[in-house]
Amino acid sequence: MTDPTESHGNLFPIFLLSLIQFFLVPITIFRVGGWLLGDGDKAARPAAAAPAVAPADASSEWGKAAAAHAARNKPTTSKRIKALFRGFNLYVSVAWAMSAALAVYIAYSAPPEHKVFDPYEILQLTPGADASAIKKAYRTLSLRYHPDKNPDPEAHEFFTGSITPAYKALTDENSRVNYEKYGHPDGKQPVKLGVALPAWMFGQDGTGPYVLMFLVAFGILLPMFFAVCAIQRMNKYGGDAGKVLRQTFQHFMMELRPNLALTKVPKMLSVAMEFINIPFKRDQEEGFRKLAVSTKSEYDSKDQKFMKRHPAILKAHMLMLAQACRKTNDVDASLQADLKTVMGLFPRLAEEALKITLAPVNQLGYSFMRPGLSILEFTQCVTQAVAPSARKPSDKPGQVADGLASLLTLPHVDERTAVNLTRKKVKSLADLLATPGPDARASALAAAGLSARQAADVEAHLRFVPSVKFLTATVETEGEADVVELDAVTCRVTLKMTRGANARAAEKDEDGKDESAAATASAWGRDEACGLIVRSRDDLPPLPFCTRCEREEGWWLAVTDPAANFILSCRRLTADVVAEAQQSPKGKQLELKFNVPTAGVYSLQVKLLSDYWIGVDASWGAKVKVLKRTNEVMEKRMAAAAAAVDEEKSAKAKARKARLAAAAGEGEGVGESGEIASESANAAGSASDSDDLSDLDSDDDSDDGLGRHGDDDYPSEETGTEESSDEEEDDAFFANGEKKPPAAAAKLPEAKPAAAVAAKSPEAKPAAAAAAPKSAEKPKPAESGGSQAQD
Question: Could you give the CA distance from residue 145 to residue 140 in angstroms, rounded to a whole number?
Answer without folding.
Answer: 9
